[in-house]
Amino acid sequence: xxxxxxxxxxxxxxxxxxxxxxxxxxxxxxxxxxxxxxxxxxxxxxxxxxxxxxxxxxxxxxxxxxxxxxxxxxxxxxxxxxxxxxxxxxxxxxxxxxxxxxxxxxxxxxxxxxxxxxxxxxxxxxxxxxxxxxxxxxxxxxxxxxxxxxxxxxxxxxxxxxxxxxxxxxxxxxxxxxxxxxxxxxxxxxxxxxxxxxxxxxxxxxxxxxxxxxxxxxxxxxxxxxxxxxxxxxxxxxxxxxxxxxxxxxxxxxxxxxxxxxxxxxxxxxxxxxxxxxxxxxxxxxxxxxxxxxxxxxxxxxxxxxxxxxxxxxxxxxxxxxxxxxxxxxxxxxxxxxxxxxxxxxxxxxxxxxxxxxxxxxxxxxxxxxxxxxxxxxxxxxxxxxxxxxxxxxxxxxxxxxxxxxxxxxxxxxxxxxxxxxxxxxxxxxxxxxxxxxxxxxxxxxxxxxxxxxxxxxxxxxxxx
Length: 465
Ligand code: 4AD
Ligand code: MG
What we know:
The protein is of the alpha+beta class. Helices cover 31% and strands 24% of the residues.
């Protein structure tokens, strides 16, 4: 790198080059000391740990040190020395300090005392400067990297699927409309409806709920592909596990049946957890100690376990004979709710569970139908504390069966002509799944609210920052 050298705090703390002069830059976490000597804890986000700066007070301008308060941004040049204090191996004896940006101690919201996660959500522009969000954001980066690494190492290609689409992949109708029409005065058709032919794309468009349909196009050409991008759902669910904007990883594989699909999902999830355990132990330990004392043991137990595989029908039987009183009904045909999923995982099996063979009526149109005529080759992976973390299926590759299903559900066939072409020309058995990135981050970090594992959460009534 030819840019002006500063030493990252992470590098400084692990450096053995004592007596060397270095420059560090970052934000002041705390300042304490006496009239003679000041101790400044400096953090630049490169690591959870602060580096201690020791400054001889008389050697500096009084006005300067006065402004070195919690939240201020400074540069420090000095010599790296062995630290006498406990808890750190090296510190910096400051020769010069430069103030980049002061932070008024009266109005700066992040003072030394711990803040609630609820309060930090209100200052999402400043929370990355806390230990907690530093750890979460570094983990988020490491997980993103490991996802790309996993697929690259396994011969998958990263396919960029569109954000703006004209179809509803999941058929759930929970979409954000994309339009440039004047909402006060939209053009109308003769029968009084909004005329989307005059809209930007000449048709109705929305933000994508899933990259899957385009992912299938990729798989039926490149064999093994994956997407990793933002997806949008206008579902009004104010829960700790739903976002209106979330990131999804969607692998799609030609020549995979539902069993291959389950094998891949299990291997992939374990790989990601192992990656975090190997590369992010400091941040994980911090979250374990601060928020969730079972985090590390839970992560280890999932990588050591064999995921249980059962059918939806078996799941319903277990729930019905559990003696539990659930809020939502558990009769055959009803969708499994988070309370049911968590019972199966946390109480009954004490292991991650993969459920297959769901009733076709509660799943999307593209899933491969079983010979029984009532169930489909869907699979949901359920995790402790999370419930559904992955949803996927083998896809219906038979043109006639797919067309019948589309008709049965009443999806406008014209919109899917390109999708149906994949079944018309060189169709192949194929499968795929979607991993909700923030659900995975909930599991990895032990946080309990999905708003705390994404930098800028989007939920009903919240689009600040
Ligand atoms: O189960 P879903 O809806 O499946 C699909 O979208 C398929 N097209 C995936 C595929 O087969 N390629 O969503 C997949 C996952 C869920 O299991 C969950 O982890 C996550 O996406 N998810 C959400 N995460 C946060 N907020 C929301 N509102 C979510 N909705 C789904
Ligand atoms: Mg699902």
